[in-house]
Amino acid sequence: MLEIKDLHVSVGGKEILKGLNLSIGAGEVHAIMGPNGSGKSTLSYTLAGRVGYDVTGGSIIYKGEDLTALPTDARAAKGIFLAMQYPVEIPGVTTINFFKTALNSQRRARGESDLDAVSVLRLVRGKAAALKVPEEMLKRALNVGFSGGEKKRLEILQMALFEPSLAILDETDSGLDIDALKLVADGVNALRAPDRAMLVITHYQRLLNYIVPDRVHVLSAGRIIKDGGKELAHELEAKGYEQIIKDAA
Amino acid sequence: MTTRAASPNPFLEDFAAHAAELPGVGQPWLDARRADAIKLVRAQGIPHRRIEDWKYTDLRSALEGTNDPGKAPSVARLRNAVEQGIEVFEFKGDAPKWVVDGFGVIGIDGTMSAASFALAQSTIALHVPANAKPAKPLEYEFSGQTRLLIVVEAGAAVTLLETPIGGDDSFSNAGIEIVLYEGAKLNHIRTASNAASAIVLEDLTVQVASAAQYRAHFMSTGTKLSRTELHVTLEGKGAEAHVSGVSVLGDGRHADVTTHIVHAAADTRSTQLFKDIAGGHSRGVYQGKITVAEGADGSDSRQTAKGLLLGVHAEIDLKPELEIYADDVKCAHGAAVGDLDVESLFYLGSRGIPEAEARALLMRAFLGDAVDEIENADIRASVWSKVEAALAKATEAKP
Ligand SMILES: Nc1ncnc2c1ncn2[C@@H]1O[C@H](COP(=O)(O)OP(=O)(O)OP(=O)(O)O)[C@@H](O)[C@H]1O
Ligand SMILES: [Mg+2]
Fold first, then answer.
1. A16 lines ligand 1 (CB under 6 A)
2. Residues A184, A156: contact at Cβ < 8 Å?
3. Tens digits of residue pLDDT in A192-213
4. pLDDT tens for residues B217-260?
5. Measured in angstroms, how far is the CA atom of residue A44 from the centroid of ligand 2?
6. Which class would CATH give A2-89+164-248?
7. Residue A222: CB within 6 Å of ligand 1?
8. Residues belonging to chain A with any Cβ–Cβ distance to chain B shorter than 8 Å
9. What are the extents of the domains in chain A?
10. Using an 8 Å Cβ cutoff, are B362 and B341 in contact?
11. What whole-number distance in Å separates Cα of residue B98 and Cα of residue B156?
12. Has residue B59 been placed in a domain?
């Protein structure tokens, strides 16, 4: 599904990712953990194709196709979804209208016909209820004045709506209360499927109790320095990054 | 070969040529007011960029090399029939008292308002009787030098839709006086001129009595040079003015909105919300002065102006100004110019929305609250469709 080889990425002229390798197969869930500033969000932005995240070396192959030249919206249309660490507030655009515009943009790119407002609302309603996103929130401006946890739930609602092939969750668990964490995990688990892959970025082993990963990777200073199974998350929690990084050196 | 000295002021020539044909000529009160107005035009000359108020809008330069403004046909007319006892006076025969009391009384202070008063060959005065609430808006259109007086009696409520109709290379200078008596309400919507190379000037003076309300929305796509100047006096207790506007400017367009709202009485309220988007080589200007006069205690005034630049050759100048001479006054004002937010563009893109569409979405969102100030849903929808068309034009210019 996703094959990243020797990836080098610079932001504002500064190299952040320094030869990153990562391979995720269809149907798999991988977790990335790593200290603040190690490059986790940089990796997620790079996968989503954010302008200013310059790939200076290596390759990103997604479903057999090199992504690096594709613009952001084209990647989304091909099934890549990023739940952002800091969802953006957009005043003046209602959440439901944004959903409709995004859904139809992706449908158009795939050669499918537009959904009308009623169909979109019907589609959103069921999924919103499952995530306990109140309908009133859908009428408000996108993310404006939403609490930290509400923003994160809305990201997962979008994931449920767009049904991506590759979902990247960048610290979706931070800011969630315990109940919301379970709701979000249920939402993510419901989407687990043989033709779908997920990359879960987190600081906390707790999330991985609910979303059990096939592989865990440790990112440090722009490189994956250690890989393992789900037990690696426990080891990290026990020892801390400093020890693991020392061991790996 | 004969050389003719270039006239420094085409308006004076115009007056000399047409004074005898002006509507209502021979009525002493009107002749006297016109004579005063032309005196003012002569004394002040044509506004240019070294006059503080016209710093961003250089009318003198714009007039050079264009058609003689005096030749612009003067048209001031209503497109629809009036209802509910509204009186229309077109200066045939003796003026009724409400015309004598109102016409040229409050709205002559700058050169351009004086020029429209002294030179308008087309002039209309409208009287809305007390408590009348006509369902249909009054649709007013104009070109050339024109003058309009609207008197709205106590408790009446009326909507004015106003459109400049001069074609390319035309010159328009509209002077409008509005008098709102106790508890009256005027909803005023001005839509844009379609003529890119026209010069369109407008000077509005509004007097608002106690508990009366003036609401206005100015939608502009700019022209070679356009300026809407609004003077509002809230002169009775509890009088209100709510003014909003959007300017969406494509390459080569200029739109200036200059306002002065005077809180002259206690407990008066005013809000202003202006949004400008400038693409290509264009310029948007908002100058907004608020005066809270002595004794206007308990007044509340809010003013927001924001600009969005689509490229490096576009310019937006926002100049809010506040003068306060009263106590216990609430004033809030803010002005900011920026670019489209890259974080937002990325977020929308990451959800599959193509860049051009994401930009359009953000621009509509930027303008939204200002357009939504229009109370009438049909008019709001028609303004939105004009805004959409203007956005398409503004974004097609290379940044
Ligand atoms: N525009 C920029 N210019 C220079 N350095 C940048 C820029 N953006 C990010 N960085 C740096 O890149 C590094 C990696 O940042 P990134 O956000 O990817 O870290 P992270 O692993 O997601 O951290 P966290 O756990 O705190 O979310 C940081 O040191 C950050 O300061
Ligand atoms: Mg991060």
1. yes
2. yes
3. 999 999 999 998 888 999 999 9
4. 999 999 999 999 999 999 999 999 999 999 999 999 999 999 99
5. 9
6. alpha beta
7. no
8. 48-51, 71-73, 75-77, 81-82, 84, 87-88, 90-93, 98, 101-102, 105-106, 109, 158, 162
9. 2-89+164-248
10. yes
11. 16
12. yes
